[in-house]
Amino acid sequence: MKNLIFYRTAQIDGLSIFYRESGPKDAPTILLLHGLPSSSRMFEPLFTRLSDRYHLVAPDYPGFGHSDWPDPKKFAYTFDHIAEIMNHFTEALGLSHFTLYMQDYGGPVGFRMILAHPDRVEALIVQDAVAHNAGLGENWKTRRAFWNDRAANESALRTNLLSLATTKSRHAGNDPNVERHNPDLWIDEFYFLNQPGQADIQSDLFYDYRTNVDSYPKWQAWLREKQPRLLVIWGQYESSFDPSEPESYRRDVPKAEVHIVDGGHFALDTAADEIAALVQGFVGRRRHRVQAPFSLRACLFTNRITDRLRVNPWTFESYHGQHPQDQPLSLAVE
User: Fold this and answer.
1) What confidence tens digit (pLDDT) does each residue in 48-80 have?
2) What span, in angstroms and rounded, lies between the C-alpha atoms of 277 and 123?
3) CA–CA distances in Å: residue 226 to residues 11, 36, 222
4) Contact assessment for residue 293 and residue 265, using Cβ atoms and an 8 Å cutoff
5) Catalytic site positions
6) What stretches of 124-267 show up as alpha helix (H) in DSSP?
7) How far apart are CA 30 and CA 100, in angstroms?
8) Res 249: pLDDT
9) Which of 29, 61, 109, 249 could, after both became Cys, cross-link 98 (CB 3.0–4.6 A)?
């Protein structure tokens, strides 16, 4: 059964942070972090496909979407600051454990959140987000020059990063079948980028992107040491990043699941069904805190738990005819 999507706000550090939320709150939580120049809106295709079995939460960062856009003269648009606010957001919502889904800018925000509170993250899903220097492709020559000399390269950077052509290419990439991409997506984003103050906000935040490159070794070290459960999803028509990046993740985490899907940088535009199935399968194999139906108590206490309990706990209709929140009993199941 499809769940309603709720469009909410939370007051975090003096800012109104907008977020989308759907699904049973006692189901496994997936926290979804969006990219540039998108917002939580990019995850609507997953909300419509997965909210019957997972608790989905997708915030807009400060300066994006429907969250507050504080003046960059008074607010530090840095990835450290945004990650701090997102951590406070999870605390305000009581999200103590979750699978973290990171797309594009969601990578640098998410990895900072992980290093600050590694105990909160049960698994990682990376969709077209970079954690290795080699993953920054040809588009990044102008952007690296901007990091080296902002004043001399500000104009070129804004054209390279914020133009209509670049905004379109994030969606269509080098897909030979452009006609299957909805132009409303990039036209809406380009309109957003041309709102008063947005060029300054995005320029400031992108100038701070250089700190992500400096942080890549720390993120890689964490991946190699912790060997987290990791799903990597990559659009085959991705034009913002280098196609070597998925295998770089696999080198860090050899057991990572890596999938190339039929899409671009915003692969959910064209591969939502495929991605939803991958996410469902991946999260469904995690270690669950199951809310088991009352009718299972006898076999639980006698340690006669069938193999069929080792599936997604939100498919218990075969046992009980309804979802497991009825007369719940907590049980950790592999």
Assistant:
1) 999 999 999 999 999 999 999 999 999 999 999
2) 16
3) 33, 28, 6
4) no
5) 265
6) 140-148, 150-162, 164-172, 183-193, 198-207, 210-226, 245-252
7) 6
8) 98
9) 29
Residue 297 has pLDDT above 80, yes or no: no
* CB distance 229 to 97 below 8 Å: no
- Scan for tokens 């003269």, then name that residue: 73
pTM, full prediction: 0.84
Element (H, E) at 287: none
Distance CA 29, CA 135 (A): 29
Q: Write the pLDDT tens digit of every residue in 238-273.
A: 988 999 999 999 999 999 999 999 999 999 999 999
CA distances from 302 to 27, 106, 178, 331 (A): 25, 44, 58, 13
| Phi, psi for residue 102 in degrees, rounded to 5 | -125, 120
Q: How many Å apart are CA 9 and CA 16, to the nearest integer? A: 6
CA distance 147 to 205: 11
Q: Which residues contact 174 (CB under 8 A, 6 or more apart)?
A: 237, 239, 264
Residue 181: name the closest of 267, 61, 269 by CA: 269
d(CA 185, CA 187): 6
Domains of the chain: 6-138+211-284 (3.40.50.1820), 289-333 (no CATH)
> What is residue 301's predicted lDDT score, i.e. its pLDDT?
38
Could you tell me which of 214, 249, 197, 155 has the C-alpha nearest to residue 63? 197
C-alpha 99/C-alpha 29 separation (Å) is 6
d(CA 19, CA 58): 5
